[in-house]
Fold these 3 entries.
Entry 1:
Amino acid sequence: MLCFQPAPMKTTSPLPDSLQPHRWAWHLRTLTRLRTRLTGEVAEHLLETLTPLRGNNDDFSDVARENSEHELLYAELAAEGEQLAEVEAALERLRLGTYGVCAETGEPIDPERLRAIPWTRFCLAAAQRREAGRTQPHPKHL
């Protein structure tokens, strides 16, 4: 008697790991929360920059303090804007399925690094090279 045994069913998704939503769920939530927080901070700081300096005070130390506070505010605003752009870019990489892949080497980024810096575009080695000012392209991309 011949018995037919069906092939075992595959339990893996037909999508590659980079496109499986559950794989990046924590990252998506974290980046979305960060985007919301940064957007609020940027809006708040933009409103503060619209507040005119009181400048009518004869006390030069008060005027200097106000100017210094405004300069600090502009610096914070610039830093928040840069971080917001990085977060937006990471969310776009999630959407495109390229999240977690080093932009320089094309290799996967260590999951622990992505947990620590979820918006990162670079693996640790590439980030260290860039930080050291040695931003020559990886041999793979020559």
Note: Helices lie at 25-50, 60-96, 111-116, 124-131.
Entry 2:
Amino acid sequence: MPICNMRLCGWFLCGQLLLAALVSEAEPPVLPEFTQSLPAAWINSSPLTTADLKNKVVLMDIWTFDCWNCYRSFPWLHKVEERFSTHNFTVVGIHSPEFEHERHRNAVIKKTHKFQLNHPIMLDNDFAYWRALGNRYWPTFYVIDKKGHIRATFIGETHSNTPRAQKIEKFIALLLAE
């Protein structure tokens, strides 16, 4: 009887390894469709769809305006936008508020002016997009390829010329070359 159980365990293990190999070669997750389609839920842009971003590399920034780590990352974000401005590249911001006063569109607009954020920003007051991404932190940066797949996720404050920033920028350049 023990031999039979060992064979069964062996087959089970082989099956698990095969499944793991198949999963690791699966395509990266697809960027979820934007959850807000009304013009009032977008700043600096009319409502976007994921189809609008096809053939572009996208750096998505999940932020909220009272987050120090978020706004300390904006100088680096500006440099990335400038560096890749002549390529099929864009930044899309997702403003997911932590506090009640961050839910007001006019307050977010004031902050976008203060921080000179000119890229499209979707207001995610109901956290529907946050949940669709499975996001948990501010700021989080998602790098999306030209086919609309999420290829990388970076969590936390990011500054120019740091190893994290260099890694993200090299990854963007790599995706632009694909």
Note: Confidence is low (pLDDT under 50) at residues 1-24.
Entry 3:
Amino acid sequence: MKLYRIIALASALVLLTAFGAAAQMTPMGTTTPNVNAPLERASDIIGADVENPQGESLGTVKDIVIDHDTGQIAYAVITGVSGAKNKLFAVPWKALKTGTTATTLSLDISKSKLEKAPSFNENEKWPDMASRTYGTKIFKYYGLAPYWEEKSMEKSSPEEENEENY
């Protein structure tokens, strides 16, 4: 009877350990962050490598900027761009696509064009990223319409939201 209890306890510990490890795994069954998952933690995006479709390294994500009014990511702030020491680049989030690996994002731009993109010094005050004038300049450089000008981003009235969600 005593041996039976020891075996039962050992089995329970093995199962608890296995379920605990599984609960800590990220999507796709890996322990590596996946910046291409449908939902991802900001801490997994920050530090992700950015490359162009040709596979050239463009830098890494230093930070993300979120629009409080819409709740969407407005920009990824890229650092480590060669030839641009201490420079940071605000890149529209919608300019970034799924990369070649789970920890990589892709930006369809050449290194030389990125080096000439609007930038700011990481050791100085950041620009006012909430400014629509600044944002329009950034989005136009990357050939995109600003997200706040898109019809799909228009806010609905509280009555419409209640009708749709309940």
Note: The radius of gyration is 22 Å.
